[in-house]
Design brief:
Layout (H helix, E strand, L loop, with lengths): L4 H14 L1 H11 L6 E5 L7 H6 L4 E6 L2 H10 L4 E4 L12 E7 L8 H11 E13 L5 E3 L5 H11 L10 H7 L3 E10 L2 H18 L6 H17 L3 E12 L7
Parallel strand pairs: 1-2, 1-4, 2-3, 4-5
Antiparallel strand pairs: 5-8, 6-8, 7-8
Helix pairs in contact: 8-9
Length: 254
């Protein structure tokens, strides 16, 4: 997927809008407002980091492996500390943060269990690790059923090194890192208004990211079917996004 940082930023903003409501609830559960130090791992262009920085009185750090992402983020968000770093080896001391969060990150990392272990390491006792959103393309539903985008998206992501079914693993990943975890699912059924508003942007992104698994004629055929179904009221798009929240327990007395 050879997208520019600007195009990724537009996609990140769209993704953030899809799950904004559940994030607000999770921020309250995680105690974001009262957190003194917050870390956003895999911050990308800052689409979620900006929201986080506005909802806490503490200091926010954004970390991403790609320096072009943090550079872009620094260009539009000034009150965040931006760091280039790897989620597998976070460059922070143990128990440095009150809250560590990530969004749409774990599907992309090579070793998600290690990344979660690192997040658990750098959060303080009683602090929270929060995975706000991870997709599970194995549960995607398109109707009419001959719009076969789900399998194409899974294959495309696998070829890019991602795990398109990471969502169902979230609770297990946090529990394995020693966190007391809970998880849930955001049932993202798009209504006709949203499907219409997002149609062009969504399909522009589909054409640019699925060119490694499908040709243009096939994708144009799916696009035309999706548009006709939207016009006659039969179009349905369902995509499950999972969240998980884990609290770090106090160490047992020796």
């Amino acid at each position: 997927m050879s997208l520019t940082v600007e195009k990724w930023h537009r996609q990140f903003l769209r993704q953030a809008r899809w799950t904004q409501e559940i994030r607000s609830h999770l921020y309250r559960q995680a105690g974001l407002w009262g957190a003194e130090r917050v870390l956003d791992v895999g911050c990308g262009t800052g689409a979620v980091t900006a929201e986080v920085s506005q909802r806490t009185r503490g200091r926010v750090t954004g970390l991403d492996l790609d320096p072009s992402m943090t550079s872009f983020a620094a260009g539009w968000i000034s009150d965040v500390d931006w760091i280039v770093g790897d989620a597998h080896w976070l460059p922070f001391q143990d128990e440095s943060f009150d809250l560590v969060l990530c969004s749409f990150l774990l599907l992309w990392v090579e070793r998600p269990a290690l990344a979660v272990q690192e997040m658990a390491r750098v959060v303080r006792e009683g602090g929270v690790v929060l995975a706000t959103t991870e997709p599970d393309y194995g549960g995607r539903i398109d109707y009419p059923e001959d719009i076969e985008l789900g399998p194409l998206m899974e294959e495309s992501l696998r070829r890019e090194g991602a795990n398109p079914r990471i969502g169902r693993r979230l609770k297990a990943l946090l529990s394995s890192a020693g966190l007391v975890a809970q998880s849930g699912i955001v049932s993202s059924v798009w209504d006709d208004r949203r499907l219409s508003e997002e149609f062009d942007a969504e399909w522009d992104f589909i054409f640019e990211t699925l060119d490694n698994v499908a040709d243009g004629a096939q994708l144009r055929g799916y696009r035309d079917k999706a548009w006709r179904a939207l016009q006659d009221g039969s179009r349905l798009f369902f995509m499950p996004h999972f969240w998980a929240l884990g609290r770090k327990p106090a160490a047992s007395p020796r």
